[in-house]
Amino acid sequence: MFVQEEKIFAGKVLRLHVCTMEGAEWLEEVPEDTTVEKLKERCLKHCLPGSLEDPKTVTHHKLIHATSEKVLTDTKTVLEENIQDRDVLLLVKKRAPTLLPKMSDVVAEEKRKQEQKAPDKDAILKATANLPARSADRSVTHHNMRDFQTELRKILVSLIEVAQKLLALNPDAVELFKKANAMLDEDEEDRVDEIALRQLTEMGFPESRAVKALRLNHMSVTQAMEWLIEHADDPSVDAPLPGSAAAEAPAEGAASSAEAAAGPSSEEGGEEAKDELTEIFKKIRRKREFRPDPRAVIALMEMGFDEKEVVDALRVNNNQQNAACEWLLGDRKPSPEDLDKGIDTNSPLFQAILENPVVQLGLTNPKTLLAFEDMLENPLNSTQWMNDPETGPVMLQISRIFQTLNRT
User: pLDDT tens digit string along 247-261?
Assistant: First the structure.
């Protein structure tokens, strides 16, 4: 029997499973000395008939060994790539190479970036060469900020007067002021920053003692903690604050005066009611009297300043020690007397505020009057009133109007 030589010396035939990304799958039988490129041609004939007419088709595909995830080299044989019988190969089309951009597109993109680029220092100096030179003085900026705060204070002073008149015109004026006075008593007793109180109690301080410390230190956690540590061994540390036991006295006086004012219905009775309203209003004002920070008072007095001057400085600068020191060493403007002056009632700013419907409605609410009084004497409480559902919208409108007119 005659046997061809090539059959005798032919390599081992391997049965390989070939898959494509589209899900096609078939079996290829190839000798182990077959090159990967030839195997790839056979696979393409099977899954893409007629594709080999384009010589680039073979080079645009690759075979991957599924187990090792290795990309097979076209010039190597199946044996050299260590492919075994029944191995799985994946036929994948290569990603198209990224086309290099045209030179014209590169130039256009670079030009666009240069146009959008912020000017450098030389460009700014060249563009502003003909402008008059001006130097920004930090002291002037600080003075402008002080004027801003002073103007807001003047607005509050004038709005308090308007709110008082509007409430006095109400037939239930006495009851409204009684309500305001009662709210003030409740406010003084109950309003404590819950977050600050929780921080102190978590440190181990008793709640009643922490409340007292916060009230004495304007709700400052740091200062309250220092106070608690300093007075830990003080026998009177848990004693109630002065005036807390007699908190109901003004309210009782207001109630009795209100009852007396409610009796007469003649003009004389009206005058008496007006006098009673004035008295109640004075009591409200007395409760909102400024309380200087005792630590700041001691620190500034140790610098050689008189106590009255120190209190005035802290009142003008909202209990801020550094600002108060600058005020004492500077021109002392605004003066304490300026704090009680209102804004020009004929000014466009004040007229715009009064014409706002939200402000108009808020001025008839006794709580708004209390908010103005509190912010006037204790500006640190402004945030609490801004978050209040009744007074917050009023304060927001005043702030927006002020900022709008000052930008024009």
Answer: 344 444 434 433 443
